[in-house]
């Protein structure tokens, strides 16, 4: 913990296509707090993710990803919302970093069919989407790890606003009150 015990860092986790970035951005807007996207931060500093996979392999990308989390987490204002890339929570060292910084993890749980429909044509941006059989196995392998999150929400709806209402309620319970409320 680093002195921000009363306002949370909300960390969105889940498979590719679960809606982490879309919902995270909307959630941050509703809470009047900043939104951070780990992949966006990585790309800003290191370049495009497909290029990183091509140059350094997945293990090289994971090292960069861990380093980016290590740099970013201590700097995040509270409250804030952070969306992780789909593989980040799989690394025990990253889970430990989130724990050290008091992050509250929220698993956005989307069924396989929903994930597939959302990501199947994104192979250019997402190197792991190129083999759909392997992707399905990865989905099954990862799900029990994502289920270690502090909170789980279904992300099957077409309209993210339904999910958003539940997330705002949770955030408020956790103390991430928006400014309008805080000044009442
Ligand atoms: C990955 C997910 C991607 C990105 C990279 C690897 C993964 O992020 O970090 O392509 O291992 O699941 P999104 O979950 O935002 O697509």
What does this molecule look like?
- The chain is globular and about 40 Å long.
- The chain is built from eight helices and five strands, in the order E-H-E-H-H-E-H-E-H-H-E-H-H.
- 52% of the residues lie in helices and 12% in strands.
- Helix 1 crosses helix 7 (160-173).
- The chain has a five-stranded parallel sheet, with helices on both faces.
- The chain has one domain: P-loop containing nucleotide triphosphate hydrolases (Rossmann fold), CATH 3.40.50.300.
- The model is unreliable at 1-5 and 180-184 (pLDDT under 50).
- It starts with 8 loop residues before the first strand and ends with a helix.
- It is of the alpha/beta class and 184 residues long.
- Bound molecules: shikimate-3-phosphate (S3P).
- Shikimate-3-phosphate (S3P) binds next to helix 1.
